Amino acid sequence: MDGLVLSHPEQLERLSRVCPEAVDVSVLAGDPCFDRMLAARPYRDRFRRALGVRRGQRLVVLNSTWNPEGFFGNGRDDDSGDSGDSGDSGEHDDLFPSLLPRLTAELPADDYRLAVVLHPNIWYGHGPGQVRAWLDRARRAGLTLIDPAHAWRQALLAADAVIGDFGAVSYYAAALGLPVSLAATGEQRLDPETPLAAFVRDAPRIDPHGPLRAQVEQLFAGHGRTPAPTSPADPAEFVTSAPGSSAALLRRHFYALMDLPEPASPALLEPLPLPPYDPPRRTAPLRVLTRVDGVDVVIERSTELAYDADGDVHLAVHEETRDPGTLESADVIVGDGAPDDPRLGGPELWTAEVLQRHAHCSVAAYVGGPDVCTVRSREHGLFRLSAGPGADADPAAYASSLYAWLTAGGSVPPGGVTLRVHVAGGTHPVTVNPLPAPPDGGPGPLRRDA
């Protein structure tokens, strides 16, 4: 062995105790992975927008290493196999896949975004198709699967909190200052003298069998209340002893090994790329809780609602739901696409067809962009909804807000009206403008027997 790269003197101290022969070829060279994240921190907002995280939303990243004791494998014996099945999505009974549908059900859709970072060996070991099948139910509720090779660092930088295990992703998240809760500790696999083991011992735990929303909210509330700057578990201190310097240190070592002079140009790391735009696409039915007071509409959307929820409840269903039967009981049916998509015929035709096809439905909403939608009410006609200054919520939430407001007795005047939609801890002004009937005499209001 010609060289052993370490990121912190603490590792050198432990190495000298267990393998003193390797000390002479060891070099302290920092952590290039962490350095790339530090350099990309100014672009956090861009990474959040790439994931479709909206103002007021909290992005919770769940991650798992690939050991059987990890989050994804916790609760499965080494020889139990991978053939378990649960319901139509093919989910096995491990902790991680069973926890995700509960998180997507308990956390309000507009207040939280969920994303998953799985170790590449999980993907390669089980196959992408199987992993996606296991997580299908949560994906339909808005979960995003992060590219395990090229986008996980950007997801960490975009995150507001992390739920994970004893893998490197959780440790990096803590080093970045994020609140971290562990669902699997794997302490038996860790050297008890390492900073990672100390971090695992000190980190808060999430109880997978208890109410999850309260635990996630407590994770945010408790973060930073009892700082311990001298704690041996502080990842920010131990992840690297040379932040921002790994490229220069590594190149110096490599050229020394080759007995060659270093280039005069600076040693630089490749910057983290901006991932493709990947907003959530929720096709699972949503229970929508609303309270209307004048032009103010308070709204909360979830795949499930608490029994004691205070307010009026309606059902909003995406046209591409896995269960077409829910469309027959939906109050609001949502679709999305480009306004000029010839397959859908445009917002006016699509909304008319939806109301004609589904007699129970009162409102059809065509989301044509990140801040606009076209809404057809069976009783009130066609409207265009546009986000006002500072508004940044899902247009489908605006459509449900309009439905609740109309149901409560609201009426859109010829000059339009601005609703104040209260969601995700903020107030979002939404302009509602009536649209004229098409020149060809297309449908306006539609009776249920039309």
Protein architecture, described:
The protein has helices at 9-18, 32-40, 44-50, 95-106, 120-126, 128-134, 136-140, 152-158, 168-175, 195-202, 212-222, 235-238, 246-258, 347-357, 395-407, and strands at 4-6, 26-28, 58-64, 112-118, 144-145, 161-164, 180-182, 286-293, 296-302, 312-318, 332-336, 363-369, 372-377, 381-387, 417-423, 426-434. The protein is α/β, with parallel strands linked by helices. The longest helix has 13 residues, at 246-258. It is elongated, with a radius of gyration of 26 Å. 39% of the residues are buried. Residues 75-93 have low confidence and may be disordered.
Search tags:
nine-stranded mixed beta barrel; 450 residues; five-stranded parallel β-sheet; 29% helix; 16 strands; alpha/beta
Walk me through the topology.
Elements: E1 4-6, H1 9-18, E2 26-28, H2 32-40, H3 44-50, E3 58-64, H4 95-106, E4 112-118, H5 120-126, H6 128-134, H7 136-140, E5 144-145, H8 152-158, E6 161-164, H9 168-175, E7 180-182, H10 195-202, H11 212-222, H12 235-238, H13 246-258, E8 286-293, E9 296-302, E10 312-318, E11 332-336, H14 347-357, E12 363-369, E13 372-377, E14 381-387, H15 395-407, E15 417-423, E16 426-434
